[in-house]
Amino acid sequence: MQRTEIVQTALNKGFILEETKNTENTAENTSPTDLKALTKEELISIVESQRAEIDELDNPPPNDWHSMAYAMFHIILYRFKLVNIKHEFPLGAQPPRADFIVVDDNETIDLDSAVFKIFRKTNIIEFKSPDDELSEQVLWKVVGYAGLYIAKYGADDRDITITLLRDTKPVKLLKELEDFVEAEDADDENGIYYIKGWKVDFPIQIVVTSSLKGKDNAGFRAISKNPRIEDIEQLLLEVSEAKDSDLIGWFRDFLDLFSRLDSETVEEMKRRNPDMARTWRDIFGVDAEVDAAVSSARADERANTTRTIYFSLVQDGDLTIDRAAQKSGMTTDQFRQQMEEYNRTHSSQEQTAQTTQVAQTV
Fold first, then answer.
1. What is the pTM assigned to this prediction?
2. N or C: which end of the chain has fewer CB within 10 A?
3. In angstroms, rounded to a whole number, what is the distance separating the alpha carbons of residues 259 and 277?
4. pLDDT of residue 79
5. Running DSSP on this structure, what letter comes out for residue 60?
6. What is the pLDDT along the chain (362 residues), one digit of tens a residue?
7. Distance (Å, rounded) from C-alpha 257 to C-alpha 63?
8. Are strands 160-166 and 204-208 parallel, antiparallel or unpaired?
9. Of the candidates 316, 232, 307, 239, which has an alpha carbon nearest to the alpha carbon of residue 268?
10. Could you tell me if 239 and 323 lie in one domain?
11. Do 90 and 121 contact (CB within 8 A), yes or no?
């Protein structure tokens, strides 16, 4: 393929962005009009760089909610040594990624949990953070993941199941699927809804984690914007009794992520229950509270600085608001609202400073 054809192909595929600015005379910042002067190796480098950026936008890194769910799957399934948990599992060359795939290498294992009752050999799980939408479009996306998995790995479609998990009940989706939620199979009190007779044959369940019952599901219930202190106390009891260092590590990961997302619940638990406070210190060390506070403050400062940069880029016309929102992990409306609030606050501060300066001059 000639160099000009490589360039055109890259442009057509979207791997090289036409609005790229030539701010410096480097291969990385070269505009499309100068690409013909580059070597094949330099062009490949640009294409790979752009592909990585596109992949990052299409598949943002997992957030703390997803990481908590990953840790909890490991905790609950830890004693089943032949069960593998695959996280952010790629399903193609420019990958869509399944949140979790639980693969049972021994089909005789009984996972003895209501959540896993429908599980077969390969179980595709879509986990939604508390603020994420769970719609029929999402369900179709996960069905697509199942199809890709079958096509790529030659799996038997009879061995596939689909699970959608979210903290809150997806009322609209369940209303749309009401003809396929069989009354005798919809365990409303336990938050598990089995979908049968829909447009595909895979066993499908929707799990409302906040409604799950029993001590075994304390971790799932804790992945919530409204967690119960009792569930965190239950997890602390379990980790205090654990002997295996790897299992203790998964508990630590989960509780550490939880404390980042909801430090108020952790502090309330410590005030209410001195025994749990001591257990927490035993797990994380005496200085854990100070370290967590410093880490949280630094993370907030970095996040605020990053958002401010994106606000400026959008206002200067160097970045679209949709793309800035994606990079910030927000919806476009959320990003726009925060940018407007920032502009109002910043403008007010400037006016106050000017008034003070005038007063001092007088």
1. 0.60
2. C
3. 13
4. 79
5. P
6. 444 554 455 445 444 444 333 434 444 444 444 556 667 676 666 666 655 554 554 444 456 787 888 888 888 888 777 777 776 666 554 555 666 677 776 655 567 778 888 888 888 889 888 888 899 999 998 898 888 888 888 888 888 999 999 999 999 999 999 889 864 455 556 789 999 888 888 899 999 999 998 898 999 999 998 999 999 999 999 999 988 888 888 999 999 989 888 889 999 999 999 999 988 988 887 545 555 555 555 555 556 667 777 787 788 776 788 878 877 778 888 888 888 888 887 776 555 555 555 445 55
7. 10
8. parallel
9. 232
10. no
11. no
Question: Long-range contacts made by residues 145-154, C-beta under 8 angstroms, separation at least 24?
Answer: 145/91, 145/96, 145/98, 146/200, 146/202, 148/91, 148/92, 148/96, 149/91, 149/98, 149/101, 149/122, 149/124, 152/91, 152/92
Domain shared by 75 and 201, yes or no? yes
Bridge-based pairing state of the strands 83-90 and 122-128: unpaired
- Alpha carbon distance 142, 127 (integer Å): 11
Whether residue 22 contacts residue 55, with contact meaning beta carbons closer than 8 Å, is answered with: no
| 192-195 sheet: strands from edge to edge | 83-90, 97-104, 122-128, 160-166, 204-208, 192-195
Residue 107 belongs to a domain: yes
253, 176: one domain = no
Residue 293 belongs to a domain: no
Q: What letter represents residue 320's amino acid?
A: T
Q: Say yes or no: 333 and 219 in one domain.
A: no
Q: Which residues does residue 208 pair with via DSSP β-bridges, in sequence order? A: 166
187 shares a domain with 83: yes
Task: Name the one residue in this structure whose structure tokens are 């057509």.
Answer: 12
Residue 85 per-residue DSSP state: E
Does any domain span residue 200? Answer: yes
Residue 22, φ and ψ in degrees, nearest 5:
-95, 70
Distance (Å, rounded) from C-alpha 193 to C-alpha 290?
A: 42
Q: Which of 226, 252, 267 is the last residue in one of the domains?
A: 226
User: What is the domain count for the chain?
Assistant: 4
Backbone angles phi, psi at 341, to 5 degrees: -65, -40
Query: What is the token pair recorded at 249?
Result: 């590590």
